[in-house]
Design goal:
7 strands; globular; Rossmann fold; single chain; alpha/beta; seven-stranded mixed beta sheet; 203 residues; 23% strand
């Protein structure tokens, strides 16, 4: 684990990871729609893309993308959530790693990705002051002209700060919406879904 632990470990109670995994298992058993984030990523990605599910938790988004035919690698710092993903969703590769120190080549995944998704307030739960570094490590694993989609509640992570961090990490903000089903963005929205793009080396 990184020297400064993610907020997920410092701002949640003991047993929260198990509760979180069980919560989504219950929702899935009840037939809830858990694939909204994945539908947006799938709509933007080419068939059989290589997709990084960064901060994957128990794997619901990555599993849905895998079901659409993509090659998926899911990463989370929480070993308990990764264990749940491995138990519930066979197919993607689920790995324990801290996003601020991400080095997938060292974990046997040297090939760059066509897209990345950070759903479920991932950026609000990383360690304080590592936001730019997390985005840099994500960017380092993407192909030129690849995209990343980041979603978070605006009361957990300031949008203006995020915009500074994404530029410092080498991304360009391409689109912003208020929901994963593409409701128009407005400054009073309580949620932000941002589409980031890596520079095209040929541009």
């Amino acid at each position: 684990m990184a020297a400064t632990p993610p907020r997920w470990f410092t701002e949640t109670d003991d047993g929260h990871s198990q509760w979180y995994a069980d919560h989504f298992r219950r929702l899935a058993a009840e037939g809830a729609d858990l694939a909204g984030e994945a539908r947006l990523v799938d709509a933007m990605a080419a068939p059989r893309s290589r997709i990084l599910d960064a901060g994957c938790g128990p794997g619901r988004t990555g599993a849905a993308l895998y079901a659409h035919g993509h090659h998926v690698v899911g990463i989370d710092a929480d070993a308990e959530l990764i264990e749940a993903a491995r138990a519930d969703h066979v197919g993607p590769r689920w790995l324990v790693a801290d996003l601020s120190e991400l080095d997938l080549a060292a974990l046997g995944e040297p090939e760059p990705f066509d897209a990345a998704v950070l759903a479920g307030n991932v950026m609000a739960y990383v360690a304080p002051d590592t936001e730019t570094q997390v985005l840099r490590r994500i960017a380092a694993h993407l192909r030129p002209d690849a995209f990343a989609i980041v979603g978070f509640h605006t009361n957990r992570y300031d949008v203006a700060a995020f915009d500074r961090h994404l530029v410092d990490a080498g991304f360009t903000l391409e689109h912003r919406f208020a929901t994963w089903d593409l409701r128009p963005w407005n400054d009073d929205a309580d949620f932000a879904v941002s589409v980031l793009r890596m520079p095209n080396e040929q541009a």
